[in-house]
């Protein structure tokens, strides 16, 4: 499912970041641990194909990402990967429904109204379907971002620091929501975090060294 071997990446300014070798199998939940600045977000962006020109091997579904063209990578990412960023990147001018419709549209997939209904209902957002993003609470917007990430039934879900700014109650709610959604769709879940509260929630863990 996910295989990282001898992976390193270097920004234009700075030393190369070396990542540990690891694999994550289909349907497995895994924490990517490390202090701020250890390269967690960089690794997620590499795994999601948002950063390129790495050294080593990085395979998703037995596909070496470096071998894909930009167009092929866009399609591959849209059809296989759901990404939950630290910021939700929702389009404020659009409704919740229109934001979700962007996911299959950009992946070249058919837009299915029934699927949008299913996902929104599962996340307790059915009544917010026609609401604009600016009308949502922070927690509701976060759930919309999760809905968008899982709408295409991705085989992999990446979540970047989804609980770092949350109190204990909402931290518990969000991590269980992510795990439940991943289980529902038999998706692999990889959560990058420095939040110590999550270590007891997911036992499979990969630790990055501080740079």
Automatic annotation (TrEMBL):
Keywords: ATP-binding, Nucleotide-binding. Residues 2-211 form the ABC transporter domain. GO terms for molecular function: ATP binding. Signal peptide: none annotated. The lineage of its organism: Bacteria, Pseudomonadati, Bacteroidota, Cytophagia, Cytophagales. The keyword RNA-binding does not apply. Coiled coil: none annotated. It comes from Ohtaekwangia kribbensis. This is ABC transporter ATP-binding protein. Transmembrane segments: none annotated.
